[in-house]
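G.,

No rush on this.
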Amino acid sequence: MHFNPYGGPGAQVAAAVATLAGHGGATAADVLATGLAHGMALTEIDDEETARILAWGRRLHDVFAAPEDARVDLVNELLAAAACRPYIARHDGKPPHLHYASEGAGVVERVRAYTAGGLAHLVCEESGRLGICAREGCGVAFVDTSRNGRRRFCSTRCGTRVNVADHRARQLTP
């Protein structure tokens, strides 16, 4: 599945931030590393910004966990809270691309705008491709990029653990 250039990465960052917020204990270094791993141009994040981003991540997590028919309203709330206003930017030798926060915005505002914008694109295109891992106790948020769009687990590892446990349970049943 191919996402538009803004929606895909923004939705992936939303999943990563939602997961960080859902698991608790994330540090500024974790949040910074997550943004950098997904191509965001971040230099540093302080503890107060980390707390605000993780609070935002809990709201993002709600979108991934919500039934598909409730996602539009939740994402609209995120867009309003992020005060997104799209414009086309050209910088760092990159071709023209969409931004939803001004180049001078702080890191929290940029993360909010990027993730809300990414989720908005994805919800409009393929709302059913957001999910929370079905393995009990995992809670990882993910964007389903599989061909058939029926992914239930965040990783092969989680899927295998559930399948092995189910197989063992069947073997014990006479």
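When you get to it, here's the other one too:
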Amino acid sequence: MFNDIGPLELVTIIVLAVLVFGPDKLPKVIQDVMRTIRKIREFSESAKADIREELGPEFKDFDFEDLNPKTFLRKQLDNDELGLKEIRNGFDLKKEMAEVTEAVQSADTPSSSSPSASSSSGRLDMTKKPEEPEKDERPPFDADAT
């Protein structure tokens, strides 16, 4: 329950509890807190049991931790009914990055017909404006995109 509390924090809490409640009342306060925590745990366990009972036998393996999105995704990815591991392993990121790099580099090579390419460095001249299409020419229409 208190996995993230270090020894220094624990000592600080104890000193503050002694200062606030005093050494005489501290055992009674600790008993009251423990009793309250115990009642809350009993209430939550009975609520979980009632929910499982109301859901019926088809949800007998239902775990409330599955409601956490991270746990749910991890469980579904481990199940792999959809073949997600094959899809994930089917992508070769290095190969695709190499293809993209080759395509960019081939577009960067200077050609005699391209006025925007710089002939000395092999790179595009970003200071020049791109050529605008003719006024009557419309861009291609993609029916699937609309």
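The chain has two domains: 1-62, 64-106. Helices lie at 7-55, 69-79, 84-90, 93-108.

Enjoy the weekend,
O.
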